[in-house]
């Protein structure tokens, strides 16, 4: 479901900094050759993530859900000198394509690309993060929050994608498993006094949380 009319969406895109040629190519290649291309953040959300990264200038970023690497390349834009982005995906089939794009984007030396189940891999990361982007299986969103919250620096941010779930979050009577998981996640973080949250109605909904207490 698109929340904006086609006309307004076009206006937003026309008044947002364009994608780089490389991101355009990655966007096109994902749509042409990869299953479920709607999962890719895309032009406007990609620029939003890049803007967050430039504002925060993070030393370490964690991304849960690499897919074809689009959002990772956007999030890497604002990394501080010597900063690192850790990105995790369970799907090893995209590894070659993703690594190729990280090289082309000139960010491969700044990215630790980990293949495996994020639920198993996150506890082993002995790193403090200034920015975490949650964009993997919805059923584990609350687990991901619990797994990362103590690894987020004071004043650091957690951003979670798809929290409006195509509008299904307001149709709570017939919530399927993913919708219920997102309803639980949104309620949980909204009530968690360790974070201050804002739900941005960008694309499919971005929950932005700033860590204010341990
Ligand atoms: C929505 S896509 C990520 C899109 C990407 N962040 C972007 O904006 O271009 C979700 C990804 O999460 C991955 N994923 C699903 N469950 C996972 C898990 N338990 N651990 C790690 N990755 C997982 C999928 O393989 C898929 O590539």
TrEMBL record:
Q: Which residues form a coiled coil?
A: none
Lineage, top-rank taxon, reads Bacteria
Q: Mind telling me which CDD domains this protein's record contains?
A: AdoMet_MTases
Which Pfam families does this entry report, sorted A to Z?
Answer: Methyltransf_3
Which biological processes are named by the entry's GO terms?
A: methylation
Keywords tagged on the record: Methyltransferase, S-adenosyl-L-methionine, Transferase
Under InterPro entries, the record lists: Cation-dep_OMT, SAM-dependent_MTases_sf, SAM_O-MeTrfase
What is a GO molecular function of this protein? O-methyltransferase activity
Protein name, entry field: O-methyltransferase
